[in-house]
Specification:
Elements: H1 8-29, E1 32-35, E2 47-50, H2 52-55, E3 66-68, E4 71-73
Antiparallel strand pairs: 1-2, 3-4
Length: 82
Amino acid sequence: MAKDKIDPKETAVRDAAVNLLTAITDARAAGYSVTLPTRVEDLAGIQISETGAMRDGDQATGLTPVLVEGRVVGDAPADPQA
């Protein structure tokens, strides 16, 4: 039984997904914040910005923690006053 051929369009999307994953992972490791849009149609408008650590010349360890609607995103104290 012969294997079904994989559609070249499927291969292109999977390859692009792997490349995007690598690029985002590398950018975050370098200190950038990367936010993906929720719709595929908006992907070209991906948000990329420097984190505070990157702007200050510090060694970046990932995304800068921020308080979002009463919850902390990232590795920051649960109490914003702490």
